[in-house]
Write a structure and sequence with these properties.
alpha+beta; five-stranded antiparallel β-sheet; two-stranded antiparallel ribbon; 46% helix; globular; binds 6-diazenyl-5-OXO-L-norleucine
Length: 304
């Protein structure tokens, strides 16, 4: 039996010593206020054991990690129909890149880049009665945690500087791939990205993807086939133009956010979340990537 607590502590200790050359995201001004030296890891085994180190119980802005949860909700609501409006190919480009969208007639490459997540947000807006409230309840249900909420401050901060997302949404609208108003869709999108969760809550919410669609409380939220597809999209698209590198170094499906969080999972085995706010040049957590590489190397637990 592996000593998971000792492994997490070893990783945390060794990376605390590394010079962190990453930068905290500043294009959303509110995120720039987060101290660069925060660093936490939480591991949740499918058998129920939990292991934690560092700042794993401090809340972070989940940002793009929310795109996996919105994709899950959209799959639940409309099934494979969503594939008519968004593709499932890696983009090989940064999360906010716009030119592919024009080249490909308003069909985003995948649901985890910004334009794809904006289409998913549009689908949720069309199908949920009270979109913000219903989506938050879905996340709370998955994580079994009523305390999870939006940060109005972060959502507003992103709205005020979200020119790139306005451009993406307007382009989608021009191509007929946005059914609701640009403002309404982005209001929802900025809120989903502003959700605050700690590493433990993230591993709880993502348990459903490691457990064939059943959450912590054994409720079936997604089919096994939907979970297979969501995990495949995380593996191939979860880290944008660094998805190959993450698969190569870590070997797990996962998703990053510009708040410095990463969640990854090994189906039928565990979910793991890291938080270290300073990002590498590709927009993924500098220490989080290394922590997960060390974890799968030390434990020999990866999908490969
Ligand atoms: O739309 C944005 O730019 C942010 N709300 C989310 C971007 C993000 O987290 C990219 N992930 N690494």
């Amino acid at each position: 039996m592996l000593d998971y607590q000792a492994i997490l502590e070893e990783i945390h200790e060794s990376l605390k010593k590394v010079e962190n050359t990453g930068e905290v995201a500043s294009y959303i001004p509110e995120l720039a206020n987060v101290p660069k030296d925060k660093f936490g890891i939480h591991l949740h085994l499918i058998t129920g054991e939990n292991y934690s180190v560092g700042d794993a119980s401090e809340k972070l802005s989940i940002q793009s990690i929310s795109k996996v949860l919105s994709l899950a909700k959209a799959f639940q609501l409309v099934g494979n129909d969503l594939l008519e409006r968004v593709d499932v190919e890696p983009s090989g480009h940064p999360f906010n890149q716009l030119s592919l969208l024009e080249l490909e007639d308003g069909i985003p490459r995948n649901p985890l880049i910004n334009s794809g997540a904006i289409v998913i947000a549009d689908i949720l807006l069309s199908h949920l009665k009270n979109p913000k409230e219903d989506f938050l309840n879905f996340v709370r249900e998955l994580a079994h945690d009523e305390t999870i909420s939006y940060s109005e401050k972060v959502a507003e901060s992103e709205r005020l500087t979200g020119f790139n997302n306005y451009a993406a949404a307007n382009l989608l609208k021009a191509y007929g791939n946005l059914h609701n108003d640009v403002e309404d869709v982005l209001e929802f999108y900025f809120h989903q990205c502003s959700i605050m969760m700690d590493c433990r809550q993230l591993t709880n919410a993502f348990f459903v993807f490691a457990n064939r669609g059943k959450c912590l409380k054994h409720i079936q939220h997604l089919t096994a086939s939907q979970v297979k597809r969501i995990n495949a999209i995380m593996l191939t698209c979860g880290f944008y133009d660094e998805a190959g590198e993450f698969a190569f170094e870590v070997g797990l499906p996962g998703k990053s956010g510009v708040g410095g969080g990463i969640v990854a999972l090994l189906p039928h085995c565990f979910t793991i979340a890291t938080w270290a706010p300073a990002l590498n040049p590709k927009g993924n957590s500098y220490l989080g990537m290394q922590a997960l590489e060390q974890f799968t190397t030390k434990t020999k637990l990866s999908i490969f």
